[in-house]
Amino acid sequence: MNASKSRKSPRERLNAMVGRLRDEIAAGQRRAGEFLPSEKALAEQFELSNQSVRKGLDILVAEGCIEKIPRVGNKVVAPERSSVTTIKFGFHSSVIGEASLLQLIDMFQEANPHIRVQPVPMTSSSFHYIGQYFGGGLLDAVMMNYTDFRDCLESGGRDWLEPLPRNPELYSFLSDAFASDGLQLLQPFIFSPLLLAYNRAHFAEKGVSEPDSSWTWRDLIRTAQRLAVPNERVGFLFDLDSANRWPLLLLQSEATFERRADGSFRLDGTRMMETLRTVRDIKRDLSLLSEGVPAGEPERMLAKGKASMIVTSFFYLNYLQNESVPFDVAPVPHFGKPMSLLLAIGLAVNRQSNPKEKEAAARLLDYLTAKQAQTFVRRQTYSLPALRQAAEWVGEETMYRPSRFSLFRETIPGFRLFTELGIGAEELYRLNRELKLYWAGLESDRSLCAEIESWSRGGGA
After folding, report:
1. What angle do CA 291, 275, 449 make, to 5 degrees?
2. Suppose 8 and one of 12, 95, 184, 193 were both cysteines; which one would form an S-S bond, judging by CB atoms 3.0 to 4.6 Å apart?
3. Where does the HTH gntR-type domain start and stop, copy by copy (predicted)?
């Protein structure tokens, strides 16, 4: 048995058979009127069952590549009857930089000349209406982050997502995040925990030890005060207004949002309320060092030497590509138990797409999560690929890589999703609005509790 084939899953071997036959037909290596090898021969060549071979041949029939002639065989059709399949692929525009997505699409199309990918940029709010996008035929495949995925499920979009085979070569904690009721609904693509990035030159200048995994938030506050230089730089920046940042502090407290019997929040007098006060106090202590800033601004300020430390993600480290700042990374500070907020991005197929487009979309997903594309992400960006082998790749680097880049491997046990706070995506968005006001000193404890408990009972917007 061929060792390289035996390591592949049945789905991968089926895709390999369909892809090779399709490519040979498109390239003219199998001419019109020629018959393909028998099903038995194909089964032996690709180590498949006869049933799987027939399934693959049905795909080629649906694509117009071959014609089944009863009791004779499978005949290649004239080239004019074959056609290029175009699939519509929705994604966040930020992923263009975070994963070199357009280059990956070009690589996929070069390897699959019979498929064309039409990029469809989307916003976060789009995923709330994913059923309309899928039902209207506007998308065949889509990329969404974990929050988008939860929003999709909460909005009744689960039945629009094609169940996918679980890939054991991807990090299991990512596959688990994108599963529901035992079904793999998204295939993990890239991920990142939150981390601390810092300017090493600033630490050396002040004679301060660089951060390590023992750092608490109080350690960070004291160090930030020493690193700050009036009218020149701030010691620390943290975008506390971002829903992809502040859940970190709540998760580290190990508190969850409590609920009454009717499902509404109970906030007053709870451990979660104590945690919200603690975060408010931290923000007060950092009032001269940290303010709400636009997305990507902390990274730009670190690059310009205007900030000594920032909370960021491997995704956002891509803002530092081609910058000369001598930066390194460390785990985020904690309250005593190391934890970090996990951000993840996955890929889905429209269950309602036509068979031809659905198969092409599945082929795109397989390509983007396979070794070549995932290793490309690892080497060309700071984002972490979901394929374990690619994420842990060691070799000659093509760009500056901080010395502690691989620290994520040791911090995996501390990764937490925002849903572990006991909230859903819609509640995250609503809490984000209320907590901005509270942490800015524009709401009291009493008014915050009253407002959140009210809308969670359906009594407010």
Report:
1. 90
2. 12
3. 11-79
Angle, CA of 67, 69 and 71, to the nearest 5°: 150
As a whole number of angstroms, the distance between CA 309 and CA 288 comes to: 14
HSE-CB of 276 using CA atoms within 13 angstroms = 27
With beta carbons less than 8 A apart as the criterion, state whether 78 and 50 touch. Answer: no
**CB neighbours of residue 357 within 10 Å:** 21
420 DSSP 8-state letter: G
Structure tokens at 76: 């290649």
At position 112, the amino acid (one-letter code) is N
List the structure tokens of 37.
Answer: 């090898």
Give the number of C-alpha atoms closer than 13 A to the C-alpha of residue 192, restricted to the C-beta side.
Answer: 26
Residue with tokens 């407010």: 460
C-alpha of 192 from chain center: 8
Sign of the CA dihedral running 101, 106, 111, 115: positive
- The residue count of the chain comes to 461
At a CB cut-off of 8 Å and minimum separation 6, what does 344 contact? 145, 146, 174, 177, 178, 188, 190, 191, 192, 386
CB neighbours of residue 315 within 10 Å: 23
